[in-house]
Every structure is written in structure tokens, then in C-alpha cells.
Amino acid sequence: MSEKQKKPQKLKARLPRGFVDREAADIRAVNEMTAKIREVYERYGFDPVETPLFEYTDALGKFLPDSDRPNEGVFSLQDDDEQWMSLRYDLTAPLARHVAENFNEIQLPYRTYRAGYVFRNEKPGPGRFRQFMQFDADTVGAAGVQADAEMCMMMADTMEALGIKRGDYVIRVNNRKVLDGVLEAIGLGGDDKAGARLTVLRAIDKLDKFGPEGVKLLLGPGRKDESGDFTKGAGLSEEQIEKVLFFVGIQDYAASAGDLAKLVEGTSKGGEGVDELNQIGHLVTSAGYGPERIKIDPSVVRGLEYYTGPVFEAELQFAVTNEKGEKVVFGSVGGGGRYDGLVSRFMGQPVPATGFSIGVSRLMTALKNLGKLGQDDVVAPVLVTVMDGDVESMGRYQRFTQDLRNAGIRAEMYQGNWKKFGNQLKYADRRNAPVAIIQGGDERAEGVVQIKDLIEGKRLSGEIEDNTSWREARVAQVSVPEAELVAKVREILEAQAEDRARAG
Questions:
Q1: What range(s) does the Aminoacyl-transfer RNA synthetases class-II family profile domain occupy (predicted)?
Q2: Other CB atoms closer than 10 Å to residue 122's CB: what's the count?
Q3: What is the C-alpha to C-alpha distance for residues 129 and 122, in angstroms, rounded to an integer?
Q4: How many CA atoms lie within 13 A of 504 on its CB side?
Q5: Per the annotation, does 399 bind a ligand?
Q6: Which of 126, 185, 302, 489 could form an SS bridge with 311, CB 3.0 to 4.6 Å?
């Protein structure tokens, strides 16, 4: 074997499928957004809590896609004591575990929020990632629907705090008890009808996508799509379909509440659900939240099976262009509901809970569409250039840099090959540095520094291509005593900020 063949293969740098590296602008946008959300949650009296990324798989339990195959749907591994652990699938199941484990120390109602990454071991696709951030708020230990009403109001306030104006969002509210009551009223109650109920729920969930006619087909014989693929229907009769469509088609809840109460009369939970929706409607209206902000809407299903009462969804109503170039409503950016059975699994006693979750990445996309993020762009660092490489000069450049930083100004001293001054200018340009500090031997002898406003310089003289013209033009360049360096830089940065504000 030749020496060439023995040479080890260079390691290939590759990102795992379904994951992304996040760049500075995105990280700052998320920080800006989560700070605004956190402020609203704190104002409502919620406190932060943080659970680890891993949980024992059995703690995530039946809420996994398939608990018999621990790697299906979630990322799992075996601990050194052979216990299965999984990366969390959402933020709700870990909270339930935390509350149950610390139940005797926790003050109920326990009102808490948390933001963090969750992981899905699913096939990635356009806009679908295996790691994404959620921001949740939950109230554990409050059985009354005022806790659910407050969640809806907090969601509405959060949308507005993020700059989404009224009319561009709505919080839609339904109740699983009413939905279960309607299904029971049409003969789909009982454990033996669980499969049929799920088919009906999936059909209702397609209302936005296929409209009433499409849902009617899915509730009945089935539906063929444009590509010829056939989806088997729930096989309901005309009368059953009519009752389901009446329920999900309610637009004016106040006018239809009486008919709905009649439809679910005699069912185990339906009447209770209607009462709860009426109470939520009364509470939010009394607090000044009209139907243009919080609307009772029976078409809201929410897919997760652990909801037991009110369910809600935050929907953005402005149009965006999708991948096919079509104008579509942006849609849901978060939702939640009451999940009274989740903590109880660990406790052997009922523990009421309600909460909601915001999809951070999806909401960030929406805010970018509205031009509501990144308005306060971070200014790049001031660049202290290096004209001489001797120890004394370098010490001076470092002191200038530190003086700027100590005054709260972003600054960096050039750390590449200082001998090619043109490289420093290119670097400043690529970094979009607002100001450059220059001190050669002549300036040092006089105890002054040259301060160049790079933004103004670029505007006045176009692209300056070489070092000589850059230094000789003295465009937007001033000379100040070393002691006035910080004050002058601050003055230039403030003027640039005013220009940006005017241009914006």
C-alpha cells in the first residue's frame, strides 16, 4: 500500500438532518421576542421554571407516539443503569413530572412559564425541524375556568406586545367536553367507538383546509384529493354529519348557544362544556376582550389527546405567500388547553391544570413577515485599527479599545495581519463597522487619534478602493485628542442612530 493510500480520510463536516445552526441575527430576534413574551407572563404573576432536556421515557408515557418503541417519534437512549431516557417531546409532560415530584413543596395554584427546545424524531421536511423552541405558560391546581379565560387573555396580550395589531390575530376557544358531547349525541360515545371519534376529529381539523364540503366527505364516505389519493371517511349518516357540521360551523356563538345546549342535552359532559364556554365568554367580555380578540369557535380541535376541557388556539389572520406562490392565512402560532389528567398519572389524585404553548420559530417567521423583528439591529463594533506592531503601540490600541468597551460601546481591535492596511478596511466594510479609529506615528506624537465615520464616509465618497485615497480624502474623518476619543465616538454613533431612525 502506497503512502498516498494510507493517508487518513479528512473528516466531513455535516449537519445532522432536521437540525439547523442558528446565526447571530436569528438568535437576537428570538431573544428580543422571548423578552417581550416573558414581560407579559411576569405581569400576569407567572414565575419561570426550567426542567432538563432529558426525562425518563416512562414519564413521557402515553403521550409518546408509541411507548413500545422508545425511539419512535422521540430520541431515546439507555442510561448506565439500563433505564430508557428520552429527549423531551414537549414542555408539558416534564412540567407534570416536576409538579408531582415536588407536590408537597409547591404552592398551589402553581403558575409558571418556561422556554426551551423540544425534540421530535420525525422525518424532517420544509419548515419542519427535529429541534425547535416552545414557550409555555401553565397554571396547575386551579379547577375553575377563570384560569382558562386568563390563559386566553394572556395570549391576546402577548400577540399585541409583539406588535401584532388587532384584526391580525384572534384567540379561538372551544371545549373538548362539548365536542365529546356532540359525538356522544350522534352515537359515538363509549370506548368501543374511540377509533371512529378520532376519524371525526381529524376530519373537523381539516375544516380550514378543505372547507365544509370537504369535511362532509371525510365525515361520510371519504374524499379523493386532486392527485387521486383517497382518504377513507368516518361513514356517518346524513343526520349525524348535519349535527357535526352545525356544531363546527357556529360563527355567532351567543346566537347558537341555546341550540348547542339542546344538541348535547343528556350527554355525560356536553352540558357542562357549554356552561364552561359561556363562563369563559362572560369573563373575557367583562375584562374588555371582545370577539375580535377572543372568539368562541367550535371548529378548534387541538390534536393532543390529553386535553379534558377548554382548548384554545392563537391564530394569525393576515395573508402570506406560501411555497407554491399562493396567498394563504398564516394560521396557528400556538395553543393549549385544560389537561386535568396529566399530573394525576403520577399522583393517584386529581390535579387540575391548564396551559398553552407558543411555537417560537413559527411566530418568529410571522413577525419577520410583518417587519416586527430586528428593528433594533445591533450596531457592529467600532474598529480600532493597527498601524504599528510594536509593543507600546499595541498597548495603546488595546487601551483605546478597552476605554470604548468600558463606556458601553461595542469595540474590537484588529487582530489579523495588520501590515496590509487595506485588509483592515475590507474587514471593517464586511463587518459593517460604524467607526474606525486610526493612530499612526504622526498622530501618536501629537497625542491625537483620527476617528472616521465609515457610514457617512461610504455615503459621501462611494466605495473607496485603496488605502491611500481612504486616508488622504479625510472624508467624514476628524482628529481629536486621545482624551476625547470616547465622547467623539459616542457623538458619531448617536448621529448614525438618528439617521437610521429617520430612514426607517
A1: 31-381
A2: 14
A3: 8
A4: 12
A5: no
A6: 302
DSSP classification of residue 10: P
Threshold 0.85, pTM exceeds: no
Q: How far apart (Å, rounded) are the C-alpha atoms in residues 177 and 308?
A: 7
Give the pairing type, strands 382-384 and 435-438: parallel
The reply to whether 169 sits in an annotated binding site is no
Give residue 450's Cα distance to chain centre.
Answer: 45
**The CATH number of domain 383-503, selected from 3.40.50.360, 1.10.10.10, 3.90.45.10, 3.40.50.800:** 3.40.50.800
| pLDDT exceeds cutoff 90 at 449 | yes
Residue 117 marked as a ligand binder: no
What residues does CATH 3.40.50.800 cover in the chain? 383-503
For residue 262, with 0-12 CB atoms within 10 Å meaning exposed, 13-18 middle and 19 or more buried, which class applies? Answer: exposed
User: Is there a binding annotation on residue 199?
Assistant: no
| Whole-number Cα distances in Å, 157 to 41, 189, 314 | 9, 37, 11
Torsion angles phi and psi, residue 247, rounded to 5: -60, -55
Task: Tell me the three-class secondary structure of 20-53, residue by residue.
Answer: CCCCHHHHHHHHHHHHHHHHHHHHCCCEECCCCC
Q: Does 92 belong to an annotated binding site? A: yes
pLDDT digits (tens, 9 = 90+) for 397-448: 999 999 999 999 999 999 999 998 889 989 999 999 999 999 999 999 999 9
Contact 136, 125 (CB under 8 A): no
Instruction: For 171-210, write each residue's pLDDT tens digit.
Output: 999 998 998 898 899 888 888 888 888 888 888 888 878 8
Q: Is 120 annotated as a binding residue?
A: yes
Please, are residues 257 and 274 in contact by the beta-carbon 8 Å criterion? yes
Torsion sign over Cα 190, 191, 192, 194: positive
Establish whether 91 is an annotated binding residue.
yes
The residue behind cell 378543505 is 210
Does the annotation list 134 as a binding residue? Answer: yes
